[in-house]
Each structure stands twice: as C-alpha cells, then as structure tokens.
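Re: weekly structure request thread

Next one in the queue (169 aa):
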Amino acid sequence: MRGQPIPQRIPPLSWRKPAFLWTPIALALSIGWPAGLFYENPGPQRLAIVSLLIVFALALVTLGASWAMGRPPKSRRIVVLHVVTVGVFAALLAPFALTFLLATVAEGEHSGATEHFSMAMSFATTPLVVMLGLPVVLVSGIVFAWTALKRSPPVDQSEDYRHDVQPFR
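Done, posted below.
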C-alpha cells in the first residue's frame, strides 16, 4: 500500500542555464586559477592543470552517478565534497604514479636507473602533495559549485502535509 509522497523540503541544485555556457566557464575558472600561480613556470602549471582536469573528470562522474541514482545534490557542500574526495584520492596516488613514470623514463635512458626510485620516495612525498593539493582542490570545488550550480526555486508551501501527520501510539 502506497501512501502520500514524502514532501520535499530542500529543493536540489540545478545547473545554471544555459548549461552549455556556464559549465565550461565554471570548469575553466576552477581549473585555470592555479595556473595563474605558476605563470612563469610552465612545468608546474601543466602539472596543476592536468591533475585538476583528472580530478574534475572523476568528480563529475561521481556527481553524475549520484544524480542518475536519483540523489541530486541539495547543497553546494555536497558538490564540493565530491571534488575534495576525488582530490584526496588523487593526491594520495599521485606520488606513486609519478615515481613509477620517472622510473620508467629513467630506465629507458639509462639501464639500471630504476633502482634509484623506491617506494620510500613515494611515501616521503605523499604528505607534501596532500598538504599542497587539498587547499587547491577545495578552492576549485567551491569555485565550480558556485559558478555552475544554482538553487532551484523553493518548494510550493501550499502543499503542507502537517495536517496529515499521525502521532505515535
């Protein structure tokens, strides 16, 4: 037996319209601002842009999955949480991926160079990457959430189900 639906008190967020215009603007702002910090160093600039592209791609996948499961975000905090969660995993895995790539490149140029790269190097740089990466990911997530998403119109207050509430017995 199906009763009346549960009233929706907090409306979910919606994409700012037109989405094909606001979403790329939000992504450009949230991914591009760290590049301005490294305007004279193209190496760290590219690293920041590529890492944020990966973080936002995965965060949008998780956000889309929750939206597809019928749980759209009701606050910007949830969107920022998606971005920061993916950013934490990326920051934890980045030193290990970088050490592996450097070892692979070094082995291709000089035989026996792989022994100079160890897991201890990855573990040693992980706290530094997390400390530098998390504030960047947090600010980027906030910029994205405030630029790309807006509050839906408030729920119609005429549909108040309080008169239909049964006390506990």
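Residues 15-152 form one domain. The chain has a mean pLDDT of 85.
Next request, please.
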